[in-house]
Amino acid sequence: MGTVTEFRVVNGRFQPVERPEVPELLQYMIGLDLGKAQDYTALCVLEIRGQESETSLHCRYLERFKLGTSYPTQILRVRELCRREPLLSNRPRLAIDQTGVGVAVVDMFRQGEINADLKPILIHGGDRAVSEHGTWRVPKRELVGATQVALQTGRLKIAADLPEVSILTQELQNFEVSISDSGFDSYEARTGKHDDLVLSLAMAVWLASRPVRELRMY
User: Fold this and answer.
1) What are the residue ranges of helices labelled H in the chain?
2) Phi, psi of 52 (to 5 degrees)
3) In whole angstroms, what is the distance from residue 28 CA to residue 45 CA?
4) Is the residue at 128 inside a domain?
5) Which residue range is the domain that position 163 belongs to?
6) Which of 9, 43, 109, 119 is the most exposed place for a label (fewest CB within 10 A)?
7) Is residue 14 part of a domain?
């Protein structure tokens, strides 16, 4: 840690004043979209810089598990990842998808001694997000909207050299909005396409966008 030179007005003149350099506090958010037999499990890691509404989000890591990877193997992989720096020293929050796999699988991750604060998310087609008994019920439109805004405003940046970034880009391009006869909108990948990396990113972005005081409550 070094020093930073600031200039302050002393007796009517600018004078250099040295102060200790304060390292930037980094936070990390993990998004984990759990797949089933025909779906991939996907994971992303966001690095959060800044405070509250001034934060910027940097996607530093993407991974998509092979089809058929057992949940115990996935738990070991996530646990290993969270025991490496910078996550080891900066305990992350883990937004984990409970939608298709249910509470039992999420409980397996909760009992897996993972160095992370688990935040289960149940994706639904409603119009608002609510927290019930420690699980967030979040409309898919809200997840997608938070990601779109973060990308369009430049708040979300994705490292171009990540091995899975081309797959994520394809998934973003294949994502579409459809309106039902009753007027409800839905957000899905086009037929035959996957959206696992998109959803892992969207959950992490959404959770990172919540006020810190709100996250501490649940």
Assistant:
1) 71-82, 103-110, 140-152, 165-174, 196-208, 212-217
2) 45, -120
3) 7
4) yes
5) 26-217
6) 9
7) no
Structural domain includes residue 34: yes
Residues in the chain, overall count: 218
Largest CA distance in the chain: 73
Integer Cα distance of 148 and 117 in angstroms: 25
Q: Give tens-digit pLDDT for 180-203.
A: 444 444 545 444 456 899 999 999
**For 22, which DSSP code?**
P
Q: Which two tokens stand for residue 156?
A: 């979300």
Cβ neighbours of residue 96 closer than 8 Å, sequence gap 6 or more = 32, 34, 106, 109, 118, 119, 120, 121
CATH number of the domain where residue 108 is located: 3.30.420.240
- Residue 17 domain-assigned (yes or no): no
Helical H segments across 38-187, by residue range: 71-82, 103-110, 140-152, 165-174
CA distance 117 to 189: 29
Strands 156-158 and 135-139: unpaired
Q: What is the pLDDT of residues 28-52, one digit of tens each?
A: 999 999 987 778 999 999 999 887 6
**Peptide bond between residue 86 and the one before it cis (omega within 30 degrees of 0):** yes
Query: What span, in angstroms and rounded, lies between the C-alpha atoms of 86 and 18?
Result: 29
Total domains in the fold of the chain? 1
- How many Å apart are CA 91 and CA 29, to the nearest integer? 9
